[in-house]
Specification:
This protein has a single domain, classed as Carbamate kinase, CATH 3.40.1160. The protein has 9 helices and 16 strands. The strands form 5 sheets. The protein has an 8-stranded mixed beta sheet with strand order 5-10-2-1-13-15-16-14, sandwiched between helices. Strands 3-4 form a two-stranded antiparallel ribbon. A two-stranded antiparallel ribbon has the order 6-9. It starts with a helix and ends with a strand.
Length: 292
């Protein structure tokens, strides 16, 4: 009986958060170990489905780097990375689109549907959802002139057409978006999933952006978790060098989202079971939140 009473108490404690997020959009970038570990995959699906059932509108944007690399290796296509970006020629782009849209996206949709949800998979080409342009990467150096790096079919978001997403939400569906975009000429681009999630969150006027990753959040000099950062603190962490490696683009995406009107952006540990619910419906959360 005590255990049942505790369960009821937890539901009561979550009521203010459920009320706060009712009718709101939450964009979740799904990636990392949460996409590989079977128990975590099912927990993620149940988290997203529960959000939908209690009146929150989740939108899932997913990555797929390991799956892309596995397919490229199987096809004997070499991969090159420059400044963290996969150089994407025509052959690589074909594989990227095949894996992200045809494989990973449908696996996530199937996972959600089999666990009681109603999910629909999309790419940026569907309804011109994600318009993009070729990304220009410029490496600045004091010793020499700036170097322009050609990344091939790597793109960046120029516009998000939210009509299709809103339509799916009204009919009770969970949109699952692969980070592939298209320009006005029909050229296809491989886009960083965090960037797509941030752009979608801004365009949808989302209340929250969640970036699932394989670390506990942003850590200070003593490797302790920083639970809350202002935009100015996050920018300073990037400029000072405290933020390194893959944390820099994640913080940058969070900053873009918050500057674009998203109330809070969160970097959370996807290795923690039920991480989405813990971040949304508990007082302290489990990751790092970026606020204005």
């Amino acid at each position: 009986m005590e255990r049942e009473i505790m369960k009821a108490q937890l539901l009561i404690e979550s009521l203010p958060y459920i009320k706060e997020f009712f009718g709101e959009t939450v964009v979740i970038k799904y990636g990392g170990n949460a996409m590989i570990d079977e128990p975590l995959k099912r927990a993620f699906a149940l988290n997203v489905i529960l959000l939908k059932y209690i009146g929150v509108n989740p939108v899932v944007v997913h990555g797929g780097g390991p799956q892309i690399q596995k397919m490229l290796s199987a096809l004997n296509i070499d991969s090159q990375f420059k400044s963290g970006y996969r150089v994407t020629d025509e052959a690589t782009m074909d594989v990227v689109e095949m894996v992200l849209v045809g494989q990973v996206n449908k696996q996530i949709v199937n996972l959600l549907n089999l666990n009681g949800g109603k999910a629909v998979g999309l790419s940026g080409k569907d309804g011109m959802l994600i318009k993009a342009e070729k990304k220009e990467l410029v490496i600045e150096s004091e010793a020499k002139a700036p170097e322009i790096i050609d990344l091939g079919k790597v793109g960046e978001v120029t516009e998000v057409n939210t009509t299709l997403i809103h339509s799916l939400q009204r009919d009770g569906f969970i949109p699952v978006i692969a980070p592939v975009g298209v320009d006005d000429a029909g050229n296809t681009y491989n886009i960083n999933a965090d960037s797509v999630a941030s752009a979608v969150a801004v365009a949808m006027n989302a209340k929250r952006l969640h970036l699932l990753t394989d670390v506990s959040g942003f850590l200070d000099h003593d490797k302790k978790l920083i639970s809350t950062m202002t935009c100015s603190e996050a920018s300073e962490a990037i400029d000072s060098g405290l933020a390194t490696g893959g944390m820099i683009p994640k913080l940058t995406c969070c900053l873009e989202a918050v500057h674009g009107g998203v109330e809070k952006a969160h970097i959370i540990d996807g290795r923690v079971e039920n991480c989405v619910l813990l971040e949304l419906f508990t007082k302290n959360g489990i990751g790092t939140e970026i606020i204005s």
